[in-house]
Amino acid sequence: MVHNDLPEEPISSSRLDNLVNPQRIWLKRSILMIGLLLVGALIFYVLSATSNLSKIIVQNTGRKSPILAGIRNHGLQGEGDGRINILLLGIGGANHPGGLLTDTIMLLSIDPVNHKAAFITIPRDLAVTYPKPLTGAGKINNVHAYGEEQKSKIPGGGPQLMKQAVADVFDIPVHYFIRIDFQAFQKLVDAVGGVTITVDKPLYDPLYPAPNMVDYEPFSLSAGVQTLDGKTALKYARSRETTSDFDRSRRQIQILEALKQKAFTFGILSNPRKINDIARILGDRVRTDLSVSEIEQLVGIVTQIKEKPIAKIFDTGEGSPLTSTQGENGAYLVVPKSGNFAEIQRIAHQIFTDPYLALEKATIEVRNGSGSPEISTELEAQLKSYGYQVVKIADAKDVVSQTTIYDFTRGNKSYTIDFLKKRLNAAVVADPNNTVKRTSNADILVHIGADYGNRKTTIKLGN
Question: Is 441 in a helix, a strand, or coil?
Answer without folding.
Answer: coil
